[in-house]
Amino acid sequence: CRRGILVFKATGCGPVVGKTLELEAVRKDGTMFPIELSVSAVKIGEEWHATGIVRDITERKQAEDERETLIRELHDALAERSRSEKKIQDLQRYNRGLVEASPDPLVTFDQKGIIMDVNEAKIRATGRTREELIGTPFADYFTDSEEAYKEVMLVFETGEVRDYELVMKARDGTETVVSYNASVYKDQKGNVVGAFAAARDITERKRAEQELRESKAELDLIFRIAADGMCVIGADYNIIKVNKTFIRMVNLDEDEIIGKKCYDVFRGELCHSKDCPLELLRMGGQFAEHESIKKRSDGKEIPVIVNAARLEKKGKFVGIVEDFKDITEHKQAEEEILDLQRYTRGLIEVSLDPLVTFDQEGIILDVNEATMRATGRGKEELIGTPFADYFTDPDNAYKGAMLTFETGEVRDYERVMKARDGTETVVSYNASVYKDQTGMVVGAFAAARDITERKEAEIALSESKAALDLIFKIAADGMCVIDADHNIVKVNKTFIRMVDMDEDEIIGKKCYDIFSGELCHSEDCPLEKLEKGEWFAEHESVKKRPDGKEIPVIVNAARLEQNGKFVGIVEDFKDITERKQAEEEIRDLQRYNRGLIEVSLDPLVTFDHEGIIMDVNEATIRATGRGRDELIGTPFADYFTDPDKAYKGAMLTFEAGEVRDYELVMKARDGTETTVAYNASVYKDQTGMVVGAFAAARDITERKKAEIALSESKAEIDLIFQIAADGMCVIDANYNIVKVNKSFTQMVGMDEDEIIGKKCYDIFSGGLCHSEDCPLAKMKKGELFAEHECVKKRPDGKEIPVIVNAARLEKNGKFIGIVEDFKDITERKQAEEEIHELQRYNRGLIEVNLDPLVTFDQEGIIMDVNTATIGATGRSRDELIGTPFADYFTDPKKAHKGAMKVFEIGEIRDYELVMKPKDEAQTTVAVNASVYMDQTGEVVGAFAASRDITLQKKAEHELQETVNRLEVYTTRINSLMVTMLDQITVEKTKGVILDISGLPPDEEVAEPLINIAKFARQLGATCIITGIKHEAVQRLTDAGANLAPITTEQSLLDGLRYTIAMIDEEE
Fold this sequence. Notes:
The protein is of the alpha+beta class. It has 37 helices and 44 strands.
């Protein structure tokens, strides 16, 4: 390279000083050549000059041109190689994009369960990096690693698993319930090299389902334990749900109530009026309360307090829930017991199904007519005998009976009932325990539903024989018949060629020794599956002949029966060797790609910048109801109910790079709508340019429904809680009150904020508090329900008698507390006390009565007696009750006739009989009797009171004798009177002596004589009555007579002692 130096004045050289320039120079001959000029500044004297160094760079330029040529050739070679690899790179990015676009954790693992690849969702779910996950066991990231490992191995055994539920655990301890779907992928030779697994997070769905179940269970619990009658009524007045109390209240079976109009079942005065609770609440009201007299369909009237609340679903009025508090209990305690007994008996006898009650030993206590018909035995033959004796398998029947007492109930327990004549009936038994008033289990009810026809329908299959020989001859596939013991009993020629053996070498051999496969000796073996009841089975398999050759086949198997019994299977083997060879030509990457897409149960879509669909998976095809060809090339947004929102979501993916949980409603061809949560992310080409987006849709319809149902269920619980007439509260496992209704706040006389958070025993204490019989303590140990009667004490000291019903509350299977219902029975207790007082009063009235009192029935049989009857008959109460009333009289026929006459005319009065006691002493009695009736007005017996009239009869006899004597005395006295009057008035005698020594000393005689003496005195004469006996002196003195001693001359007269002298005082 040649160089030259130039010096020139620096004027105008400022822009190039200090720089190196490449220029073209011209030689003298006019040729051009490249030079390099370097310019710098030099000061000479007072002036600045520029110096320049010129270099000829012709050779360097030639070298550079050659280098550039080599670089271009190398670049072209690299570009060619790049183009050849571009598709692979694009496909790899596409695959990676598919993996990373999925919101679900995706994993690939080998046949030992070792992780080979993961996506970002898996990294987030486990809280571990990709480097930490790859190369570790897949099963290590689940709470049950053994179960997870089994699932991994199952994928390689069966080719895939679907909806396999596991609990994934993260580094920080977070647990996530997931549903796994996995399938194997193979290399070009068809060898399985690994498996894809996609985990769908179903935690929220599980939680929502669990909460819904618990919420519904809580609702049912409250409904079941409510002491008041409760029912749910639709907007069209149809009853759609009732509790047991309501069933008892209206005296109908549940199936007689459900679907009926409310006013046909329980009519009140507000029915068909604008004040009907349903109409009031339909107009917008939330609650309604009134007092009413409800009339049942049988005409019985019941006074009740009605509380009603509005029911809504999705904001629309759908009906009401009503609570009926019976307020007649304190007036009708005995009547309710009788009604309940009649109702119970009616329930038993009206049922067409056999109903039985039995004790804890399994001994029958009662049966209905249906049971008598089913067994061909009378009630007396059945009662007292073992329940299990009337089944073909007594041991299992006995176990079912005992299981009732262990668990409280059994459902759909199938047994075969046998009748006396040998008839057998397949029945499904449902049984539950019942308790006495103390809460002790005393027996069980069992109802048997005849399911014979259903069973016959289930097993009644066609038993025709196919033309197997013809099929065998013409079939191009290998076919064989295998008996139930895996022995080959028949083959066709194709099968003989397929296994390369003679027929006599095959017949009688085990199928797995002739043509073995991976399902042999497993529960998925076609023979094993069909022996369990399946009819057909199909699978693809590689079968191995005895000489070691393997043949890929499609196996179809069908069940063979004879006389309804399984005898073996027929198998068809389609040789698919050629098809398998064709499939081997498909590249591994294509299988991997498609596998990634299709393993997902969620719809997957790829779309471009315009939102136009480029690819879909099968889940998308099913979800939209359209074929792949119909979908590809159409707008992504067209398949949603809100296309604008869907399009905005698609465009947002390209703006932000991804979207998460973007909710849309997908619509199918048939109009089906599915709520989905979309997750989408972009994918790029090798230059980093975004070329499209992946979108995965997760079906959240069930979760949404569960959330709505949970919300509505909770609202329904709150409604029932609010309108319940009984006090109700929810108590947690630590005895803290967490929820109460208005009735409870009124019951304890406190505000809600004074109650919530307090210990239950501080607010409403009772005798069981702090004991092992406390309902919460019992249910904490596993019991489901508890009921007892007690007296609760409020903080202000007031005591309230209540019936307590308690039920166990659980969440996620764990005990969290109880719900308690307190029925105030103050009125009932007062009514019972009034009844007891009345009974004691009545008993006192009976026993205080000195007359014998008896009650007897319409046959004249004694039902009750008092102490006076026991004394009068000389027999004890036990000896008298149950014997004929007439037996205790001297004339039993007359006594029985009198008893029957009471029932004919309603009463008898002063019916004379002679009672004979055990000591033969007889008592004359006057019997008064009248009938008495039950609450329905039916005559059930008679009361009889016997008055002892023995002395009265004796007095009447003596009176008659006295009357007879007085008739004689009256004649003599009249004679004396006439004599005296004659002496005084005619003979003017001033003194008259009347001698009565011949008369008895009766007062009835003496008193008239005194009157005679007084009469004589009025006429101015003196009358002296002589002959008075000593024993009559006191009577005469009491009558007002003056007694004077007798004169000397008179004392000589026999029998005289005293005289009556009616003489003036002067004398």
